[in-house]
């Protein structure tokens, strides 16, 4: 164990346990902020940004999360949320048509599910990108490129989403904790693809000054 992670004799909570607690608190904040539904992309993007800052010894706390989120709910963020909701409803409607006896229903259902899964991967990877703090167009474009050149990472994103959904389905209270580990997984996939130390956008730097 490295010196930075060493614990004194009898100490229970080390840096990793502290980060785990922070991830859960950020997850609860993300779940609450996502309740209006159209705020979900901004809420998840904020969680990823806060957890990404932990690499640079910035506090990954609920207080910092709320401070960042207060500046996030712009028209563009709400429009991204409305578009996400419309996309989900469209996929669900297509699957309902397939179950209703539509000609070629099996093939149609598979195609609709694949399109929905790919769109979900792009949306989730966009939330993990630093550009999402200031504009969704660049974040979505970068996520679309990443989804093609990093197929393994896209698979990990789907697994993380499935794990979060399964936890929420098995025990409803876990739905308020699942966004934290999901955001951590999305951030890890993005950092894994780009080993560089990402330069924080100007808006993120302003958030850090406010919450210092």
Share of helix, binned? over 70%
What's the helix count? 9
**Poorly predicted parts:** 196-207
From the N-terminal CA to the C-terminal CA, the straight-line distance is: 30 Å
Gyration radius, rounded: 18 Å
Secondary-structure-based class equals mainly alpha
Please trace the helix and strand order, writing H or E for each element.
HHHHHHHHH
Strand content: under 5%
- The outline comes out as globular
User: What's the β-strand tally?
Assistant: 0
Overall pLDDT confidence: 83
The main sheet comes to: none
Question: What is the secondary structure topology, with strand pairs?
Answer:
Blueprint: H1 15-33, H2 40-52, H3 62-70, H4 75-99, H5 105-128, H6 136-149, H7 151-170, H8 179-193, H9 202-211
Helix pairs in contact: 1-2, 1-8, 2-3, 2-5, 2-8, 3-9, 4-5, 5-6, 5-7, 5-8, 7-8
Can you offer a commentary on this structure?
With 212 residues, this protein is an all-alpha fold. Helices cover 70% and strands 0% of the residues. It has 9 helices and no strands. The chain has helices at residues 15-33, 40-52, 62-70, 75-99, 105-128, 136-149, 151-170, 179-193, 202-211. Helix 1 runs antiparallel to helix 2 (40-52), helix 2 packs across helix 3 and helix 2 packs across helix 8 (179-193). The longest helix has 25 residues, at 75-99. The chain is globular, with a radius of gyration of 18 Å. The two termini are 30 Å apart. The model is unreliable at 196-207 (pLDDT under 50).
């Amino acid at each position: 164990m490295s010196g930075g992670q060493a614990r004194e004799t009898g100490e229970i909570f080390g840096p990793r346990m502290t980060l785990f607690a922070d991830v859960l608190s950020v997850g609860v904040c993300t779940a609450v902020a996502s309740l209006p539904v159209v705020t979900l992309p901004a809420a998840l993007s904020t969680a990823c940004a806060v957890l990404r800052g932990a690499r640079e010894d910035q506090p990954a706390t609920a207080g910092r999360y709320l401070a960042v989120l207060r500046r996030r709910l712009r028209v563009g963020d709400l429009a991204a949320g409305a578009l996400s909701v419309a996309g989900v409803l469209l996929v669900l409607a297509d699957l309902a048509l397939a179950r209703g006896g539509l000609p070629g229903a099996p093939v149609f259902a598979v195609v609709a599910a694949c399109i929905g899964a790919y769109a979900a991967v792009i949306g989730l990877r966009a939330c993990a990108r630093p550009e999402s703090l200031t504009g969704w167009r660049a974040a979505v474009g970068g996520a679309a490129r990443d989804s093609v050149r990093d197929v393994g990472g896209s698979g990990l994103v789907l697994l993380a989403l499935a794990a979060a959904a399964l936890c929420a389905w098995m025990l409803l209270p876990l739905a308020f904790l699942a966004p934290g580990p999901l955001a951590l997984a999305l951030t890890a996939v993005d950092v894994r693809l780009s080993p560089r130390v990402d330069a924080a956008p100007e808006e993120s730097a302003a958030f850090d000054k406010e919450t210092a």
